[in-house]
Amino acid sequence: xxxxxxxxxxxxxxxxxxxxxxxxxxxxxxxxxxxxxxxxxxxxxxxxxxxxxxxxxxxxxxxxxxxxxxxxxxxxxxxxxxxxxxxxxxxxxxxxxxxxxxxxxxxxxxxxxxxxx
Amino acid sequence: xxxxxxxxxxxxxxxxxxxxxxxxxxxxxxxxxxxxxxxxxxxxxxxxxxxxxxxxxxxxxxxxxxxxxxxxxxxxxxxxxxxxxxxxxxxxxxxxxxxxxxxxxxxxxxxxxxxxx
Amino acid sequence: xxxxxxxxxxxxxxxxxxxxxxxxxxxxxxxxxxxxxxxxxxxxxxxxxxxxxxxxxxxxxxxxxxxxxxxxxxxxxxxxxxxxxxxxxxxxxxxxxxxxxxxxxxxxxxxxxxxxx
Amino acid sequence: xxxxxxxxxxxxxxxxxxxxxxxxxxxxxxxxxxxxxxxxxxxxxxxxxxxxxxxxxxxxxxxxxxxxxxxxxxxxxxxxxxxxxxxxxxxxxxxxxxxxxxxxxxxxxxxxxxxxx
DNA sequence: GTGGTCTAGACCACG
DNA sequence: GTGGTCTAGACCACG
Lengths: 117, 117, 117, 117
Description:
Chain A is mainly alpha-helical. Helix content of chain A is 56%, strand content 7%. Chain A binds a DNA duplex through helix 3.
């Protein structure tokens, strides 16, 4: 579930950060669901607890999760519409960069049809 | 032309690297055009000459530019089709990430129509 | 009455501790009034009974409440003057921090006029 | 300059964080001024470099400082008016809490006169 | 030299 | 058991 790539140039704590967001958006982690504890996740991923803690702290600062002292970390209230918008804005950037390179919108639309998960 | 963001977390040398590619694809830098010298570009961007040199070295390693000793750096022969394909592969990644979040291809196509440069 | 914020970084037992003092000073809890039992308050606040017990213990150590074994916890004799002084000392700290930042006493006085409960 | 209290219950990194803000507001650290390096400050304060780094990272996340890779950390552009407003809002909270305890605005104003730095 | 990341491991408050 | 803080120390990319 939390497959991370230790070789990647993306820091591990950032991969965990992104993974949690992904799991929330996919609906795998729902509102108020408890995240794995820092210790458990660090064991599962075979990374240092501090690394997981850093990811969780950043998620908390971003209001994506909250922690109850002594109890654990939980998924915050989610505004799915807002999240969707944020994702689409990221997509806009992708598209814009591509258009700048001289590609047409039709080329992009055709390309989308060829993409599979 | 080479507007880079010194505060960005993307390394400066990488920004320069990407910028050169962008300028080539946009047709601003054409085949065999001479790039600014390391010294001049470093002054213009107010960055360390080593940083520019590193970008140029990587561009050369990627066969995107070539250098003639004592004369400067030049744009290599360009295979526009190959470049286009590389850009579209980047775009695929963008799309895939978005689909994973539950958005539909139609939503993406509509979104493209709303993007302006 | 005992509205506490479970997500706050201020420990829950400390919030309860402060709340009791606040209720006493506001005159809502009067001398010899009985506090809610640990069990009841913990249910009402949906927190661990140990947490409420800790708050009560500290309140007792501070002589703010007293407990009669088997009967419950009660508000101690109140020296309103002493309490007022303690609050004003806290206020001094607030003011001092603000002055250190270069604000004038007149600015603070004007600001007070704008504050409403 | 960076006197911190290792005994305090306020985390060291948070004390450093607050101290930097204080120095900025007092005008001791001006726009684009370079902060002491993580290593130097950690030696001066006799704390672990990681602790200083954590403070700096939070300051950067809050846009109060920025770091140039390989060069150091610097004070961001400052909107003094906005900062002043933020401080006054904190003061409001202080005042409100005091008023809730039944003190009058006149009492607070008199109290301010007695405060010295 | 600079900050960024990570490990290993400790201790603590809270509940 | 849970997260939060901190130390000691390593390695890395960037410039």
